[in-house]
User: What shape does this take?
Amino acid sequence: MTSNIFGNIKGVNVYFDDIIAGADSELELLNILMEIVSVARSKNVKFNVDKIQYFVSEVNYLGMVFNEAGMKPDSDRVESIKNLKAPSNRKELQSILGLINYLRPFIPNLSDLLVPFKDLLKKNTIFFWNNIHEKQLVKIKDVICSLSLLHTFRYDKPIEIQADASQFALGCTLLQDKKPVFFASRNLSPSECNFAQVEKELLAICFAFKKFHNFLYGHANITVYTDHNPLISIIQKPLNAIPNNRLRRLRLKLAPYCFTIKYLPGKDMHVADLLSRNVQDCTVEDDETLVEMVHVVGTQLEFKDDSLSRYTSATVQDPILSQVLEFFSNGWPRSLGQDNQSELLHFFNVRNDIVCENNLVFFQNRLVIPKTERKHVLNLIHETHLNFDKSKLTVKKFFYWPGILSDLKNLIVSCPVCQRFQRSKIKDPLQSHDIFDIPFYKVGVDIAEHNQKAYLVLIDYYSRWIEVTTLKDKSTASVIIALKNIFARFGIPKILISDNVPFNSTEFIAFSREWDFKSQTISPHHSRSNGLSEKAVGIVKSLFVKANYTNQDIQLYLLNYRNSPVAGLEYSPAQLLMSKNLRSKLPIDGSHLYPNVIKDPQVIDKSNQYLNYNKNSLQKTETFCLDDEVLVQDIKSKIWERGTIIECLDNRSYLVKMHNSGKVYRRNVHFIKKFICSFLDDHLAAEDNVGSDTSCSNEDYNALINDTDTQSTLRPGLMPDSSVPNCFTPSSVIDSQVWLKKNTLAYLPGRGDF
Assistant: This one.
């Protein structure tokens, strides 16, 4: 009733029939007093004159003494506690503790002082007061006699909050001008005890803001001190940048307040640290929004059959993760000695992102897999043989261990299925033909077909002069006759580049020896090695099509082509070969028909082409040695099969004996790639290299993963060999480093990118 009448007056507080009014000056207090009297007259309220105190500097109100400095306990109440006698039963002890607890705001470590009396308050316990209890009661009386003063809160002054969390409790202090204004502490609930230490520290700050809300809300000058340094960077991050769901939810609770956070060593945070370690026992209800965060990871994980018990058992038995579980439950040490295992040091460095639940360890909501289960998990991830980019997304979302991405890369690189069905190799760096500054010194030949007729097409590497001769058939004899006619007109070349059939026959080889030139065949199914001849065939076919369409002579087309400048040059094939222009139907000055020796700059242009091509080449040319275990791509199916190098030939060509058939093939390096033994047959890289979420370089990885090679045909005259060297067995590998050296994988110690 009294509060309804006087409670709305500024500067007035009412507790039942007791009214207290305070102000910063006598004039302000006089105005408040006049308003109280005016309201009392209007409501017919009467006061006891003997109990009214006017304009005093100190007043005793509700058992507390209020003055200009702040608030302190009433000396009469303190004296009554000092004169308390020992209780004789449980009810008397409860009365004593209730009286003492009234002074709780002034006693930071009251819970610690009351611990010896807890057993006496339990039901079904015989009440027995002994010397220990008596000494503790005397100690409490001495503490009460030296109680500190709680200072008055001033809204116009800066506020300091000290908050700290121990293993089982939270404590906080509100200070102004380094003087205590309010103390608060509470126990942690059973679920909160399972929080990570960084979560407990942030929970302590949230508790302080909730407890002191009336003082803090709307205040613009608040400084929060914590002894947990990693918490500062978390508080300063945007909400979407905080990976831990619980930390994000706690940070969201602080959004209505404006404050700065600073680090204060625990040795300088006496009161909050003491409060967090000495609190009165009480029932604390869980914050459901935070309890949900405890289980959010576990409920989202679906385990098949007994997989959950499998992973929990492996985690508990893992020597590293078992220590992580222990540190998470009992608190992380301030530092780890250098003699600790490197993987444990890694988890120590990222301890603020680790959460443990149901004997499982989570890093940034990703399940940490124990060592014994890593091979199993890798096999599950790569069960359907997806590429690394897709598998990496799965790993980064669900699983973690130090070095997991490098282990995954090495697994995919060495997977027999993935190696068998890889795409064809990308283009190799250019290996250009040597071009001599002598016309008709080096030529290329190929057979073209048009309108069911066969033609021998020859091109001079120096001048780009093209000769076309009709063949009776594609036999070696017809080809030899055509070449003899051409050689009789232009001379015998030193080198002749060609495909295999029919130029690899015994008859043609005998012809090359008789006419003294070197016949050089390309690798089967790799026509790019004879690219100039392929280009000449394309030109000739185009000329045939146009000549047939216009009913003109093909020889006239060839004449005009030979008189036309070579692409990129100002000279024609005729000028480069014969040092003159050929007379044609075009009216040209007769002076251009006289011989004029040309110094061909093609060699320089060819070098530039070589450099430009190699700039765009995405891989380096692989080289192989005798007895190397390789994969050879089948030309038709594009599938990679295992084989062994049995002979190294010229111009990136190798003889390979296939494991499945025993046949021997000649193949260009474009269709060959190194075979890599299975990575999972050996120790995982993470056992020797810790802290690397991504390890091998993109260049090395692309060279190993994205290679696209192709297979070939049996070289005529070679018989299959029955003996093939076996690849070294993975069981001989001692550790992952030896395995990597033998398999030349791109595994490198990483930089810990999570």
Summary: The first helix runs from residue 2 to 6. The two ends are 64 Å apart (CA to CA).
